[in-house]
Design a protein that fits this description.
The protein is mainly α. The chain is built from 2 helices and no strands.
């Protein structure tokens, strides 16, 4: 079995080769995906906010 330093070097070389094989997204793809996520988060936050408002107002009216 190789010494720990040599095993580490071989491992890091393998990582470098795998990273070269990765199909990296283009800038346009990243920006488009980020925009979709941002819009989704805003819509979800608005939905949760409206639900919270409706439930808190209805609870207030019910408890009066």
């Amino acid at each position: 079995m190789a010494n720990p330093v040599q095993r580490c070097v071989v491992f890091l070389q393998g990582i470098r080769e795998e990273v070269r094989l990765v199909s990296w997204p283009t800038r346009e793809e990243v920006v488009g995906s980020a925009l979709v996520v941002f819009v989704g988060v805003v819509l979800l936050a608005a939905y949760i906010g409206v639900c919270d408002l409706v439930l808190s107002r209805s609870t207030t009216l019910f408890l009066k």
